[in-house]
Amino acid sequence: MELMAGIGESTSCLIQPESIINKNNPKDRHFAVILPLINDTMGDLRDELREKIFKCSEEDFETLAMSIFRYQYKHNRTYQKYCQTLFRSDVLIPKSLLEIPYLPVSFYKSHDIRCGNWNPEQIFQSSSTGGIPSKHAVRDIQIYRESFLKCFQLNYGDIDQFAIIGLLPSYLEREGSSLITMVSELIKQSMDGDSGFYLYNHHELTALLLKRESQKRKTILFGVTFALLDFAESFELHLPNTVIIETGGMKGRGKEPTREEVHSKLNAKLGIKEIHSEYGMTEMLSQAYMIKHDKFSCPFWLRPIVREQRDPMCLQEWGRGMLNFIDLANLDTCSFIATDDIGHVFTNKEFAVFGRADNTEVRGCNLMVADFFQT
C-alpha cells in the first residue's frame, strides 16, 4: 500500500558529500556539512532552553527546535551514536527540521535515553503484553506537569469547570503510567469532590454521571478504550454534559477495532454526539487532542512530521505516511521521535492516525536499528 499519496517532488531528502557517496547505492543519503561543537556549560544551556519551551511561538519554533537538536546531539550519547551510525559522519548539522534524524521509539525499549548524567524524578513505563516495555526517564517532572496542564487548558479551558473522572483500570493496576500521572494531577487540579478514579465499579460510575447530568454540571471522563466499551455494553445512557476522552488501549483484549468503530458504538450507547481522543505515548511528554473531525490538534510546542514508509530519511511537513514528532518538552531525553503510527499530517499541522504499522511496514527504521546494534 502506498502511504505517501499527496507528497510531491518537494519531499526533502538528504544529500551526502561527493567524497563519501556510495556509487552503488544512489539512495544512500548523508549530511554534507560539519557542525562545530557548541561550547556551552551544559546546565546553563539547559536552563535557557527549558525557559523557552512553553513560551515559543509559531515563528520561533524551528529556531528553538534546532537549538535543542544541537544540545541533544552533543549531550545524549545514544542519540549522537545513532545519528553518526545513520549518516556515517562524526558531526552533523541539519539545515531544517526535515533534515534532523528522528530516533525510533523502539530505542526506549533497549537504551537509556537521556542527556548527561542525572537521577530521574520518575520513570514512565509503557504497558506490555509479553514484550519489552518502553522506559522514559524523566529528569524534571514539572516539565511534564506544565505540558499536560497547558495542553488541557488550550483545548478545554479552566479545569475548575469540570469534574475529572478516570476509567483506566489496566493503567491503575500497574506502576509507571504517564497517563495515570496526568489524570491524577488533573483530578487534583479540578477541586471537585466528584473527581476520582474508577476501576470496574460501573454502577457507581453510572449513578455519579447521571447525578451530574441532572444538575447540568460539566464532567470529563478519561477512559481506556476497552473499559469504555465494557461500560457502554452494560449501560445505555444520555450524557450531553459529559465529555468522554478515549485514550486508546485494547492490548490483550483481542483484535483492536478502528477508532471510527469505537466512537460510533460509544456515541450510540452513551448518547453523545462527539467522542474526543487523546494522543500520547510513554516516549513523549506532550499530548494532542482530537475534539472533532477526526483530526488531532497539537499544542504549539509539539509538531508532527511525516516520513516516507520505506525511506525514513525522506521527510515532509504534510502528507500521508509514518508519523514523526518534535516534542520540545522532551528536553532531557530526545525531542525527535519516529513512531510506528501511520497517519496523515495536514497543512495546518493537525494530524490523523490510521493505525499502527507492523514490522514489515517500518522496515526502513528497523534496518537502521539493526545497523546501530552492529556498530
Task: Briefly characterize the structure.
By secondary structure, the chain is α/β, with parallel strands linked by helices. It has eleven helices and 15 strands.
Please explain how this structure is put together.
The protein has a 7-stranded mixed β-sheet, with helices on both faces. Strands 1, 11, 12, 13, 14 and 15 form a 6-stranded mixed β-sheet that branches. A two-stranded antiparallel ribbon has the order 2-3. The protein has helices at 42-52, 61-75, 77-87, 107-110, 141-156, 169-172, 178-190, 202-214, 225-234, 259-270, 363-374, and strands at 103-104, 122-125, 135-138, 163-167, 196-198, 219-223, 242-246, 276-279, 288-290, 296-297, 302-307, 315-316, 319-327, 336-345, 351-356. With 375 residues, it is an alpha/beta fold. Helix 1 runs antiparallel to helix 2 and helix 9 packs parallel to helix 10 (259-270). Strand 11 and strand 12 form a beta hairpin. The model is unreliable at 1-40 and 360-370 (pLDDT under 50). The protein folds into 2 domains: 18-106 and 301-374, no CATH class; 141-290, Rossmann fold (3-Layer(aba) Sandwich).
Q: Which features does this protein show?
A:
375 residues, alpha/beta, Rossmann fold, 2 domains, 6-stranded mixed β-sheet, 32% helix
